[in-house]
Design a protein that fits this description.
41% helix; 11 helices; seven-stranded parallel beta sheet; 14 strands; single chain; Rossmann fold; UDP-galactose 4-epimerase, domain 1; 338 residues; binds nicotinamide-adenine-dinucleotide; three-stranded mixed beta sheet; binds UDP-4-deoxy-4-formamido-beta-L-arabinopyranose
Length: 338
């Protein structure tokens, strides 16, 4: 069976994807530097699947160490590349660190892949590449050059780098997966999102309010041009997203070329929709306060999800109630994280 190298496999989306890969019969090798994850996630992947895998605590910026991983596993046939820094606000404060980690790290990875004849990659891109000038629903053919922060620009630039790699060598097969807003957790409650410090994102913040770690949710603005005035996003169950990676891996193993593909549900939910769905899941009211808008936020963001269906035969199965049920289970079982 095919062996897949997963960078950032101890992280939120990576850990869920590793579970799906192992359950589908793939062999995996994980590389992570634990800059935003914990070794416990790896134990949990083994606990869920009952399967083992090799792990290397390696920073992808360390080209030599990365090269050794490829040397030791000459049968790696594709890479899923999750490793990267992802906090939008932090990227504004530390642009150099973000460009270096995300872009230099990806260049090191590409160089080592090329040196070892591995030319198939699935890359974690983001809906953030659609920037501010496009209108919803976002379609893969839209221009992607108006990101609003350094994090977003790392995704725009890495997509361009990978497109150029393909132009230079048509043997490559590249999937640029543009994720919308992944939330929720594995149905076992064993893995889920476990941010350090105060959560930047809506769902982990709500989870922490639900277990009493935060007093109330701050809703960033209720005067947007949306049905209830709060921002609308395309929330996707992280397990659906993980399954999308299985389809993308199969696609890159069987085809050549470069394809950008949205992974979203095609539906939008507001901040209050998510809060109320979570209240239903946990069976209690959750306190919130309306505050000012957050800088850089947009009113609407949701996918045209038709390309993934056409190209991969993939579409999301879970709804917002499922996402909240599983997210509640995870935080109840792990109120202080992993
Ligand atoms: P995460 O932080 O949980 O996972 C990223 C993993 O990469 C972490 O385990 C971290 O320790 C590791 N890592 C970071 N830099 C590394 C390096 N230099 N060397 C080795 N390992 C390194 O984040 P996630 O939510 O699982 O996101 C995974 C990918 O998906 C990221 O590239 C992110 O930008 C992208 N993405 C995430 C979202 C989202 O909302 N979560 C949306 C769109 C795109
Ligand atoms: C969702 C909605 C907020 C927190 C981010 C990145 C994006 C992608 C996914 C990686 C918005 C509101 C939030 C809070 C709130 N990541 N909100 N109170 O901003 O859509 O996307 O994650 O690629 O690039 O920007 O996600 O979860 O931060 O916000 O009211 O405490 O919730 O204003 O409307 P976002 P989010």
């Amino acid at each position: 069976m095919s062996k897949i190298l997963v960078t950032g496999g101890a992280g939120y989306i990576g850990s869920h994807t590793c579970v799906e890969l192992l359950e589908a019969g793939y062999e995996i090798v994980i590389v992570d530097n634990f800059s935003n994850s914990k070794p416990e996630a790896l134990k949990r992947i083994k606990q869920i699947t009952g399967k083992d895998f090799d792990f290397y605590q390696v920073d992808i910026l360390d080209r030599e160490a990365l090269g050794k991983v490829f040397d030791e596993h000459g049968d790696i046939c594709a890479v899923i590349h999750f490793a990267g820094l992802k906090a939008v606000g932090e990227s504004v404060a530390k642009p150099v660190e973000y460009y270096h980690n995300n872009i230099t790290g990806t260049l090191m990875l590409i160089e080592e892949m090329r040196a070892h004849g591995v030319k198939k990659i699935v890359f974690s891109s983001s809906a953030t590449v659609y920037g501010v000038d496009n209108t919803v629903p976002y379609v893969e053919t839209m221009p992607t050059n108006t990101a609003t922060n350094p994090y977003g620009y790392t995704k725009v630039m890495i997509e361009q780098i990978l497109k150029d790699v393909y132009v230079s060598d048509n043997e490559w097969s590249i999937s640029l997966l543009r994720y919308f807003n992944p939330i929720g957790a594995h149905s076992s409650g064993l893995i889920g999102e476990d941010p350090n410090g105060i959560p930047n994102n809506l769902f982990p913040y709500i989870q922490q309010v639900a277990v009493g770690r935060r007093e109330h949710l701050n809703v960033f603005g209720d005067d947007y041009d949306t049905p209830d005035g709060t921002g609308v996003r395309d929330y996707i169950h992280v397990v659906d997203l993980a399954k999308g990676h299985l389809c993308a891996v199969k696609y890159v193993l069987e085809n050549k070329g470069v394809e950008a593909v949205n992974l979203g549900t095609g539906n939008g939910s507001s901040v209050l929709d998510i809060l109320h769905a979570f209240e239903k899941a946990c069976g209690k009211e959750l306190p919130y306060k309306i505050t000012d808008r957050r800088a850089g936020d947009i009113a609407w963001c949701y996918a045209d999800a038709s390309k993934a269906k056409k190209l991969f035969g993939w579409q999301a199965q879970y709804n917002v109630d499922d996402m909240c049920r599983d997210g509640w289970k995870f935080i109840q079982q792990n109120p202080n994280g992993l």
